[in-house]
Design brief:
Blueprint: H1 2-22, E1 31-35, H2 39-44, H3 59-66, E2 70-75, H4 86-98, E3 102-107, H5 130-150, E4 157-160, H6 179-196, E5 201-206, H7 212-224, E6 231-236, H8 243-261, E7 264-270, H9 277-287, E8 293-297, E9 312-313, E10 318-319, H10 321-324, H11 332-335, E11 344-348, E12 357-362, E13 368-373, E14 379-385, E15 389-391, E16 399-407, E17 410-418
Parallel strand pairs: 1-2, 1-8, 2-3, 3-4, 4-5, 5-6, 6-7, 7-8
Antiparallel strand pairs: 9-10, 11-12, 12-15, 13-14, 13-16, 16-17
Helix pairs in contact: 4-5, 5-6, 7-8
Length: 420
């Protein structure tokens, strides 16, 4: 009996200490992601990856252990070799989900690369009218997303178009010459995505995140044509000499999107020279302060198709210092929260018996992730809901845990005590 009482006293003391420690409103990285779209193609060519200890492992597991908690995947309509097509995307999404990563789906609306220099429509859509193009966009987006849904995957973010600085699906959707068409095509994709996943954030992607004038012009077209979108995504590829300036300019862009359009932002693509060493690591650290959601573009792509902005050592096949120093393991400051006074969170009973827990949520509009974390920050369980939820059969041992609640606009961490 005395031992049991002593244990209870220790656990309750830990509870009160953790409550004091975690009762802070710390703005944190909501998402620390990696675009891993090349992985399956690289594997088919014989590529392998090793972790920081030099052990060969699955690349998704390695990325998870580095601290990445989300995976961005590009989608092509009818790629000639199948890579980045629907089936390939679903397969990669399954592997990412198995490692506890959320999924970011980026629709290029092309059979291959879509970027500021080229926005070619899929070959099968080449001669479509505006109306036919809208239907094709809708059909394609729904098809891929329904495939993910059938595989048990709900994307965290969905992006319509890729680096659409001057629109997409040229020439019909070129923003500088046919702004209304550009807006109509984005709307077709947005509406299609919301019809499959109404609770998922859907956004638009523009490159040169440092160029606030470009962003104001582009997103102004969407606003002036009555188009809905949830977030503004951007690309940022600075050099080792200008990254501090470009990051500062990107922060101005983020604040402008908030003040002028009421939108939050994502760094959808970040990269820096693979040989930049500790300078590159510093650039990664600084870039992660731009906004709450950040992705490194193809960090695993060492010695692949001439890409020079990866973050892997092609001699050792291990992550380079750009990641090992630029990213840090999950810490209290990273997993604690972004406070929103309009949202309330309650856990009961607390302490609980380790099996049954009710998470009461009020004031949420988006689908929300609930994660049960160990004291060290390891994710034990992940649930997704848009309302209060009763969790059962958790089978948690006696001790201290944390419950993390997260959606795009809210993130909070609470202590949970288990007494058996």
């Amino acid at each position: 009996m005395k031992t049991n009482n002593l244990f209870r006293m220790i656990v309750l003391t830990a509870f009160f200490i953790s409550c004091m420690f975690f009762n802070r409103n710390v703005k944190a990285q909501s998402v620390k992601g990696a675009d891993l779209s090349w992985v399956t193609q690289m594997e088919a060519s014989g590529y392998i990856w090793k972790d920081v200890d030099g052990k060969q492992k699955d690349i998704f597991l390695i990325c998870k252990n580095l601290g990445f908690n989300s995976c961005r995947l590009r989608v092509w309509v009818n790629p000639s070799d199948g890579w980045c097509g629907k089936t390939d995307v679903i397969n990669k999404a399954k592997r990412a989900k198995a490692q506890g990563m959320s999924i970011y789906v980026a629709f290029h609306l092309s059979d291959s690369w879509a970027d500021p220099s080229k926005q070619n429509p899929p070959a099968a859509w080449k001669n479509y009218t505006v109306s036919q193009m809208q239907t094709a966009i809708s059909t394609h987006v729904k098809d891929v997303l329904n495939g993910l849904k059938s595989a048990g995957i709900t994307p965290w973010f969905i992006q319509i178009g890729n680096e659409t600085n001057d629109g997409l699906l040229w020439p019909l959707g070129k923003a500088s010459t046919n702004p209304a068409n550009y807006a109509a095509f984005i709307k077709a994709g947005y509406d299609a995505a919301k019809s499959v996943f109404p609770g998922t954030a859907v956004g638009v992607h523009v490159s040169n995140m440092y160029d606030v004038s470009l962003w104001k012009w582009n997103f102004g077209i969407l606003k002036n044509n009555g188009v809905s979108w949830d977030f503004c995504a951007g690309s940022l590829y600075p050099s080792t000499t200008d990254y501090a300036t470009k990051i500062s300019q990107a922060k101005t862009t983020v604040s402008t999107m908030k003040s002028q359009f009421g939108k939050w932002c994502i760094v959808a693509e970040f990269g820096i020279a693979a040989n930049s060493g500790t300078t590159g690591a510093d650039a990664v650290k600084q870039s992660r302060t731009i906004c709450d959601n950040w992705y490194y573009w193809e960090p695993e792509a060492y010695n692949w198709q001439g890409y020079g902005l990866h973050a892997w050592d092609w001699n050792t096949k291990q992550p380079s210092v750009i990641l090992t120093s630029g990213l840090k393991s999950a810490t209290v400051d990273e997993i604690t929260g972004i406070n929103n006074s309009e949202i309330s969170l309650n856990l009961f009973p607390n302490p609980c018996d380790g099996n049954n827990l009710t998470v009461e949520l009020e004031g949420i509009n988006d689908f929300t992730y609930i994660r049960i974390l160990s004291l060290s920050g390891s994710i034990l369980y992940t649930f997704k809901t848009n309302q209060s939820i009763k969790l059962q059969n958790l089978n948690l041992e006696s001790g201290t845990y944390f419950v993390q609640i997260e959606n795009p606009q809210f993130k909070e961490l609470r202590s949970l005590i288990v007494l058996k």
